[in-house]
C-alpha cells in the first residue's frame, strides 16, 4: 500500500487503521515531510518498506544517493530507468552488500500514448517503451521494474519470472481513475503477471479503508 499521506502523524494513524497491511510504500511526500523516522516506525512494527524516491540524475549522483539509502535497510528503492544504463549500473553497485533491491521506474502510469508521442516526442507506444526500459533495467542487474499492469505480461515473458513487475495504476471496478492512464483491476493485474500491486487512493480515500483493503484481497482469491 502507498502511504501517500502528508506527515508522520497521519502516517502513524493510517498504519494503525490498517494493521493487516504488511508492505508499505513511502513516497516523496511523506519522506520529505517526516524524514527517515517513518522508516523506523515501520521497521519497529515489522513491516516491509518500499522507499519510492525515484532517483533520476547523473551516474555519480544516483550512486551517491544509493550509498546514502543503503543503511536504511529498506526492501525496495526506486530509480527512473531514463537515468540510462550507466546510472542504473552505478546505483546498483553503490547498494553494495545491502539487502535493498533496486527497482526501475519505466514509464509513469499517468502517461498515455498521446502524451508519450505528442508531448514528450517519443515515437513509441507505451508498451514498446516499457519493454525497452525493462531491458535496460534487466541488463543493469536491477531486481525489477515498476510498470503498468497492462505491460506486466510482456515484461514477464521478456525478462523472466524472477524479474519483479511492480504495478501501480490499480483500480478496482467503480473507483475513480484520477490521474492514472494505464490501469487494470487488481484481479486483472495479477492475472497479467504483476508480482506486486501498488495501491493508494482506492483504499486511502475509501469511506472504510479496512473494508476496501479486505474487499481487494478477497477479489484476488
Ligand atoms: O513508482 C511508483 O510507485 C509509481 C510509479 C508509476 O508509474 N505510477 C504510480 O502511480 N506510482 C505510485 O503508485 C501510487 C499509486 O497510487 P494510487 O493511484 O493512489 O493508487 C502512488 O504512490 C504513485 O506515486
TrEMBL record:
InterPro entries: Aldolase_TIM (IPR013785), OMPdecase (IPR014732), OMPdecase_AS (IPR018089), OMPdecase_bac (IPR047596), OMPdeCOase_dom (IPR001754), RibuloseP-bd_barrel (IPR011060). GO terms for biological process: 'de novo' pyrimidine nucleobase biosynthetic process; 'de novo' UMP biosynthetic process. Pathway: Pyrimidine metabolism; UMP biosynthesis via de novo pathway; UMP from orotate: step 2/2. PROSITE patterns: OMPDECASE. Pfam families: OMPdecase (PF00215). The active site is at 52 (for ompdecase activity), 54 (for ompdecase activity), 54 (proton donor), 57 (for ompdecase activity). SMART domains: OMPdecase. It catalyses: orotidine 5'-phosphate + H(+) = UMP + CO2. GO terms for cellular component: cytosol. Keywords: Decarboxylase, Lyase, Pyrimidine biosynthesis. Substrate binds at residues 4, 25, 52-61, 109, 171, 180, 200-201. Transmembrane segments: none annotated. It comes from the Bacteria. PANTHER family: OROTIDINE 5'-PHOSPHATE DECARBOXYLASE (PTHR32119). Catalyzes the decarboxylation of orotidine 5'-monophosphate (OMP) to uridine 5'-monophosphate (UMP). Belongs to the OMP decarboxylase family. Type 1 subfamily. Homodimer. This is Orotidine 5'-phosphate decarboxylase. It comes from Thermosynechococcus sichuanensis E542. The gene is pyrF.
